Amino acid sequence: MNKVVSFLFIAFLLISCSEYQKALKSDDVAIKNEAANKMYEAGKYVKAIRLYEQIAPAYKGKPNAERMFYFYSMSLYKSKQYYLAGYQLENFVASYPKSEKREEAAFFAAECFYKLSPEYSLDQTDTNKALDKMQRFIDIYPESQFLPQANVYVKELREKLEKKAFEIAKQYNTISDFKGALKAFENFLADYPGTPFKEQALFYRFDSAYKLAINSVESKKQERLTYAKNTYSNLIKHNAQTEYKDKADKMLAEVEQELQKYTK
Length: 264
What we know:
InterPro entries: BamD, BamD-like, TPR-like_helical_dom_sf. By secondary structure, this protein is an all-alpha fold.
């Protein structure tokens, strides 16, 4: 029985391959389209793409083009060719505004850019683009069945950008560029008020202000010490039991000791 099944499967593959090769060589657009659709249904997306690419120019502007271009776009998506898929899916949405597949295509187009978003440590151009695309989808289709997943993607993309911005600010602190760190943390806290990195950002802002003040020239020291004390207050106001409290309290004690010199 197993031998019979294996034989039939092999025979099916041979016939399928034979049909595919004939379609590739054929000049008949209908034959190519039919073969491409069979490849798509069988999950052989790369083969389907080759055929769709051959017939795409002939289908442009024709009444039956919508279905072909949808399958072509989804073949690119399902074969993980996200740059091309994103472009083709967006083109499909623009070309067929009344299509019943428009919403689905719009979501998958935005998802392509999400898939292209790199690790937070790398350049985030594609992440920003993905966030814009996904937010636009949410704005246009607020009742979409894809809305829950779109919101998950938006949250992930925003957190990635927050992580990138936080790490850049922290790096200034690490290399002892405390002025740069203070500016970066101020911008970060203003841009991401609800960030999960807020407590860390508040501490490193205080740490940067403290180190800048303690090592400051005399003419600017009092002002910088006062600012450092204020950044400590911001940290404690956010979380009185912060994990950084012991270290921050020791730093504050030194700040206050230095400030006393200006009250005598």
